User: What shape does this take?
Amino acid sequence: GAGVSQTPSNKVTEKGKYVELRCDPISGHTALYWYRQSLGQGPEFLIYFQGTGAADDSGLPNDRFFAVRPEGSVSTLKIQRTERGDSAVYLCASSPNIAGLKYFGPGTRLTVT
Amino acid sequence: RKEVEQDPGPFNVPEGATVAFNCTYSNSASQSFFWYRQDCRKEPKLLMSVYSSGNEDGRFTAQLNRASQYISLLIRDSKLSDSATYLCVVNPQGAQKLVFGQGTRLTINP
Assistant: This one.
């Protein structure tokens, strides 16, 4: 069946611009996670949704980062006033419930110039 | 101190060799433990869960030592296709997030 999909696969933007990254979880998965992976590092947790609500946003680095999941399915990660340090691969994962195994999408590679 | 620490390597071993990785975690209340595999420019994929009793899946064996707070992965009879980065992952108690180590890069040489 279809896995987690993320769009775009690559995004190049200029410093100071706004970007949106999209995640389509596996159908029926209620839990959705965003992670960020910098070069040479493991993924770092950003935020987790259970249904439509953000259950844990403790990993968001600052208020330039925001994520939504209005209908409990697709999620969008929004980054305002991008900085070069935001350059990373942004990974989305979903699981059928909060205790279930997590399946990762292929990620969006963000480059801020 | 990082929550999950791994030796980043790289480890270069000949095909057929046995290779072992360890990682340590700082939160003694952590509940669940995993090894993920990540190929270059790909997403992480679950390799195996790790249980206190130890568990084996073919050529792969994972062990958890709660007293010492470390997790190990052993790969026997390594194959060229085992070349990847291996991520040690911990699920802290009461949290739904996964905490990843830096990853250990493994290259199997012919």
